[in-house]
Amino acid sequence: MKTIIEPFKIKSVEPIRFTTKDERIDILKHAGYNPFLIRADDVLIDLLTDSGTSAMSSKQWAGIMDGDESYAGSRSFYKFELAVKKITGMKFIIPTHQGRAAEKILFSITGGKGKYFPNNTHFDTTRANIEFSGAEAVDLLNETGKHPELRADFKGNMDVEKLEEFIKNTGKENIPFCMITITNNSGGGQPVSMKNIRDTKEICNKYGIPLILDACRFAENAYFIKKREPGYSNKSALEIAQEMFSYSDGVTMSAKKDALVNIGGFLALNDESLAMKCRNLLIVTEGFPTYGGLAGRDLEAIAQGLEEILDEHYLEYRIRSIEYLGERLVDAGVPIIEPPGGHAIYLDAKRFLSHISPEEFPGQSIVAALYIEGGIRSVEIGSVMFGKYDKNGKLIPPPMELVRLAVPRRVYTQSHIDYVLEIIIEVFKRRNSLKGYKIIYEAPMLRHFTARFEEIS
What we know:
Layout: H1 21-30, E1 45-46, H2 58-66, H3 75-88, E2 92-96, H4 99-110, E3 116-119, H5 124-132, E4 136-139, H6 160-170, E5 178-181, H7 194-207, E6 211-214, H8 218-228, H9 237-246, E7 250-254, E8 265-269, H10 272-285, H11 296-308, H12 312-331, E9 344-348, H13 349-352, H14 362-374, E10 376-377, E11 379-381, H15 383-386, E12 388-389, E13 395-396, E14 402-406, H16 414-429, E15 437-441, E16 452-455
Parallel strand pairs: 1-10, 3-4, 5-6, 6-7
Antiparallel strand pairs: 2-8, 7-8, 9-14, 11-14, 12-13, 15-16
Helix pairs in contact: 1-14, 2-11, 3-11, 4-5, 6-7, 8-9, 8-12, 12-16, 14-16
């Protein structure tokens, strides 16, 4: 196969500040061994998140200059609205300053004590907004998706049999809607098949429950369907995306992912009554319905980004870049979620550090080691992010202990990725010397953002 090159040219660069290993040891200690608390200037390669960290295109920057900053009825809003409607087919488009704002509005209206929201896998802010309302977030990932070492085309799929069983046991009146996250972030950035979306919709229709898509990485999911699912190889990414959304009744999206922008999001709905309630709350919390907490220039950039993300030359490059990183890690014996997902590589911390129990947070140990060894910032997705406590204060760990290395879009080159490979492999070689960590401070919700740790001696 010929080398797949970046389908863009670099027009502007940002310098990286290099640090020494001794400096990084001191920096990490002062940050409480939490990568979220490290200053960005002290990071060499930042793989903490792919959210809001993409490089915008020249056309997006041109849109920034052309933004209409009118408080009401901005032409930039109508351009944004048209772009979202073209892809999703939704009737009512509500801009928000980012995805979690859309979630906050939606769950504030539909959530509450005694309500349940099933999903293939909720990510952190989605779960937090559900739980903040008093409702319960329920994950119904298919069994294959729970085993990092198993290879399958669509490990992000909903377990539709468990979904129907859950609806029967819970009562459809207690489930405001069902969700599917595409791609499945907490499950390793794994895609969801069109058949699974369709089957989930059929179950929802059977019981009169709406289906909402968390569509942060919808274009990556569409490209996986094109490459892996029979009957879609000759369809465009846009056509596949449109079919995915045709099975849904609403969409939440952080535009900071697959819309290639640094800020922004939206809520899109077909239910006029629900949309009106959401818009009323939007006015109180975010802003007027034609700007929703965003500047007109941001709406312009999102509209352009939604067009660029469906360029199949870009999607081929994006998916292959992540695949390249994953293949070489597997060749070196490093345990990851296989096959590689769309936006990130997920190290399997349970197998990577089999000598460290979930109670001592093996993922956090790897995160610390990657920063010390090479200045790479990553994030734990395991017992720190999703662990809970029983009534006796004992940790209830999630099914998987992971470390996510999320690759920003259009930011890093081949040599950056090769450097990341070298550092991960070096840490893996000395894995038996790594120690566990304990939490010395944690917030009551979304603790991973601000928690502080100490190494266990």
